[in-house]
Amino acid sequence: MSPTRNPSSNSSSSPPTSHHLSRPTTSASSASSSSPQPLRSATNSSATTNNAVPTARLHQISAQMNGTQIASPFGADVVPKAPEDPLFGLMAAYRKDTFDKKVDLGIGAYRDDNAKPWVLPVVKKADALLHSSPDLNHEYLPIAGLAEFTSASQKLILGADSPAIASSRVASLQTISGTGAVHLGALFLSKFYHPAHNPNPSVYFSAPTWANHHQIFSNVKLPIATYPYFSPKTRGLDFDGMLAAIEAAPRGSIVLLHACAHNPTGVDPTREQWRQIADVMAARAHFPFFDCAYQGFASGSLDRDAWAVRHFVERGFELLVAQSYAKNFGLYGERAGCFHFVAGAGAEGADTAVRVASQLAILQRSEISNPPAYGARIASAVLNDAALFAEWEDNLRTMSGRIMAMREALRAKLEALGTPGTWNHVTEQIGMFSFTGLTEKQVLAVREKDHVYMTKNGRISMAGLNTGNVDYVANAIDRAVRENP
Ligand SMILES: Cc1ncc(COP(=O)(O)O)c(C=O)c1O
So what's the architecture of 86-120+396-483 in CATH? Predict the structure, then answer.
């Protein structure tokens, strides 16, 4: 579990048990280590036809002799072609598939029982209110975003009665959804987090984690390491491994934690386990960074899903939170999210928050100037109105309830079929995803034979299941497991 500066592969095919980080062929470090080669361009492309090779080469030489063309500094040895994002590649393959019973269990987006995207009824209402408002305009938002949105977001994640809010220890900025919040936090840490006892700290991710964590943190040049998280044997949490690794990490390391509904495993620590994680992190002076992309979506309760974050705040930790409204509002494309810095519980907390906010504003200004308004306005309308808020909670229960029902149905069908292995983990895991334990071979078999699409690591998006396809998927899994033991 040694820290490394290289991101692990962004491929979701990396085995869930691997704590070892490999160097991707496209990493910036491998690219920048080779020197640019002049005179190398399209002539080397495998897509160039045999006839075109000499012609293109002649044109190039003649252009260079005439001084009209300078060799591109971005030759293939400097900018190699990157592999397609595995998840978006899977989506494209699914779209191309013409089979009528195909099933998409890849992307983490909610679908209703007819496999259709669901616009939350409360979002429709808020949208109508927004458009009928005489005050609606298209002015820039402030750099930190819509103030009523960021303050409501603080209350949502930290609790309306949070001591951190009461003592003005929270600095919040509206971001480009959860990804933007994770990025802003990563950038802030890379610039400002250099504790004296560990001036070049690593960030520790669960193994596995959301693949984008590796890309986001390596982009800002933070060294990356991992802690064990998922036990393939129990298909649950490797709690001892996790705790031991966090304990062994150099003092003052950054530890990235999924607040709830861990992606990709669907496995969360219990409250008692969270307490022990907090104990070890306090003893080792580690810095917690919570990624919260599924609040309310996991258990159906906004408060329950925020418990871990609130516990760490109560314990007096200084910490970061990345908050996404993509899943719990179904506002995937509107990019509504929020970033929070919570200063420690000491007397200087409010002052720290003011200084940090001023630097975050500079980072935000240089990257996006100011955030997009539409999604935040919708979320804000709901978060700041008691009746709409209650309706939102109801909509959340509809989504989480349907997902839980699909967990029950899939497990029941697999058990009824006598599919080799145990399937209790399907109902024990929580949130959008289930880590089925299917091997890569089995995953490919269900795709090729039955047109059921899931990521190579065996993760399925539970929202892709519905009453019309769950038996079909269970039968496909059953066959793949039996034929590919
Ligand atoms: C763990 C985790 N963090 C962050 C995100 C960010 O999502 P978005 O940028 O769509 O809000 C996701 C989305 O899948 C996620 O699973």
Answer: Alpha-Beta Complex (3.90)
